[in-house]
Amino acid sequence: MSMTLDWLAWGTVVAGGAVTLAIRASFIMLPPGTRVPELLQRCLKYVAAAVLPALIVPDVLFRELAPGAAINTYRVIALLVASLVAWRTKSVVGTLVAGMGTLWLLKWSGL
Q1: Is 106:78 a contact under the CB 8 Å cutoff?
Q2: What's the mean pLDDT in 96-103?
Q3: Would you list the domain boundaries of the chain?
Q4: What is the spatial distance between Cα 60 and Cα 75, in angstroms, rounded to a whole number?
Q5: How many other C-beta atoms can be found within 10 angstroms of the C-beta atom of residue 55?
Q6: 69 contacts 37 by C-beta, under 8 angstroms
Q7: How many CA atoms lie within 13 A of 67 on its CB side?
Q8: Residue from 81, 88, 79, 28 nearest 52 by CA
Q9: Which of 21, 53, 57, 98 is most buried, by the most CB atoms less than 10 A from its CB?
Q10: Residue 10 contacts residue 1 (beta carbons within 8 Å)
Protein backbone atom coordinates (compact mmCIF):
# COMPACT_ATOMS: atom_id res chain seq x y z
CA MET A 1 0.00 0.00 0.00
CA SER A 2 1.35 3.42 -0.83
CA MET A 3 2.01 6.07 1.80
CA THR A 4 -0.89 8.19 0.50
CA LEU A 5 -3.35 5.30 0.81
CA ASP A 6 -2.13 4.59 4.35
CA TRP A 7 -2.81 8.18 5.39
CA LEU A 8 -6.15 8.16 3.60
CA ALA A 9 -7.18 4.97 5.38
CA TRP A 10 -6.14 6.30 8.78
CA GLY A 11 -7.81 9.64 8.06
CA THR A 12 -11.04 7.85 7.21
CA VAL A 13 -10.93 5.83 10.43
CA VAL A 14 -10.20 8.92 12.55
CA ALA A 15 -12.91 10.97 10.79
CA GLY A 16 -15.45 8.17 11.25
CA GLY A 17 -14.56 7.93 14.92
CA ALA A 18 -14.87 11.70 15.36
CA VAL A 19 -18.29 11.76 13.73
CA THR A 20 -19.47 8.83 15.86
CA LEU A 21 -18.17 10.49 19.02
CA ALA A 22 -19.84 13.79 18.11
CA ILE A 23 -23.19 12.12 17.49
CA ARG A 24 -23.09 10.17 20.75
CA ALA A 25 -21.75 13.05 22.82
CA SER A 26 -24.34 15.46 21.45
CA PHE A 27 -27.06 13.88 23.59
CA ILE A 28 -24.89 13.91 26.71
CA MET A 29 -23.38 17.37 26.24
CA LEU A 30 -26.57 19.24 25.39
CA PRO A 31 -27.02 22.35 27.53
CA PRO A 32 -29.49 21.93 30.40
CA GLY A 33 -33.04 22.65 29.36
CA THR A 34 -32.49 21.71 25.72
CA ARG A 35 -35.48 19.84 24.38
CA VAL A 36 -35.08 16.98 21.94
CA PRO A 37 -37.61 17.31 19.11
CA GLU A 38 -40.67 15.07 19.46
CA LEU A 39 -40.06 13.38 16.10
CA LEU A 40 -36.52 12.42 17.13
CA GLN A 41 -37.76 11.06 20.48
CA ARG A 42 -40.32 8.88 18.71
CA CYS A 43 -37.69 7.61 16.25
CA LEU A 44 -35.19 6.76 18.99
CA LYS A 45 -37.68 4.31 20.52
CA TYR A 46 -37.08 1.97 17.59
CA VAL A 47 -33.28 2.06 17.48
CA ALA A 48 -32.81 -0.99 19.72
CA ALA A 49 -35.37 -3.00 17.75
CA ALA A 50 -33.59 -2.11 14.51
CA VAL A 51 -30.04 -2.74 15.74
CA LEU A 52 -30.61 -6.02 17.59
CA PRO A 53 -31.49 -8.11 14.50
CA ALA A 54 -28.57 -6.58 12.63
CA LEU A 55 -26.24 -7.85 15.36
CA ILE A 56 -27.85 -11.27 15.84
CA VAL A 57 -28.67 -12.49 12.32
CA PRO A 58 -25.11 -12.68 10.91
CA ASP A 59 -23.91 -14.49 14.03
CA VAL A 60 -26.78 -16.98 13.94
CA LEU A 61 -26.61 -17.72 10.23
CA PHE A 62 -22.92 -17.66 9.40
CA ARG A 63 -20.88 -18.52 12.52
CA GLU A 64 -19.20 -21.93 12.81
CA LEU A 65 -20.35 -23.16 9.41
CA ALA A 66 -19.80 -26.79 8.50
CA PRO A 67 -17.80 -27.35 5.31
CA GLY A 68 -20.07 -26.68 2.35
CA ALA A 69 -22.93 -25.32 4.47
CA ALA A 70 -24.65 -22.07 3.59
CA ILE A 71 -26.08 -21.44 7.07
CA ASN A 72 -25.63 -22.86 10.57
CA THR A 73 -28.71 -25.07 10.93
CA TYR A 74 -28.20 -25.71 14.67
CA ARG A 75 -28.19 -22.01 15.44
CA VAL A 76 -31.25 -21.36 13.27
CA ILE A 77 -33.20 -24.10 15.07
CA ALA A 78 -32.08 -22.76 18.47
CA LEU A 79 -33.14 -19.26 17.39
CA LEU A 80 -36.59 -20.51 16.39
CA VAL A 81 -37.03 -22.35 19.71
CA ALA A 82 -35.84 -19.30 21.67
CA SER A 83 -38.15 -17.03 19.67
CA LEU A 84 -41.14 -19.28 20.39
CA VAL A 85 -40.32 -19.34 24.11
CA ALA A 86 -39.87 -15.56 24.17
CA TRP A 87 -43.18 -15.03 22.40
CA ARG A 88 -45.11 -17.40 24.66
CA THR A 89 -43.51 -16.63 28.06
CA LYS A 90 -42.05 -13.11 27.74
CA SER A 91 -39.23 -14.40 29.98
CA VAL A 92 -35.65 -13.37 29.20
CA VAL A 93 -34.17 -16.14 31.34
CA GLY A 94 -36.50 -18.73 29.83
CA THR A 95 -35.58 -17.56 26.35
CA LEU A 96 -31.85 -17.82 27.06
CA VAL A 97 -32.19 -21.24 28.66
CA ALA A 98 -34.35 -22.59 25.83
CA GLY A 99 -32.11 -21.20 23.08
CA MET A 100 -28.80 -22.24 24.59
CA GLY A 101 -30.18 -25.57 25.77
CA THR A 102 -31.42 -26.34 22.28
CA LEU A 103 -28.10 -25.31 20.72
CA TRP A 104 -26.06 -27.40 23.15
CA LEU A 105 -28.39 -30.39 22.77
CA LEU A 106 -28.15 -30.25 18.98
CA LYS A 107 -24.35 -29.95 19.08
CA TRP A 108 -24.06 -32.76 21.59
CA SER A 109 -26.40 -35.09 19.68
CA GLY A 110 -24.74 -34.37 16.33
CA LEU A 111 -28.02 -34.55 14.39
Answers
A1: yes
A2: 95
A3: 1-34, 45-111
A4: 5
A5: 9
A6: no
A7: 0
A8: 79
A9: 98
A10: no
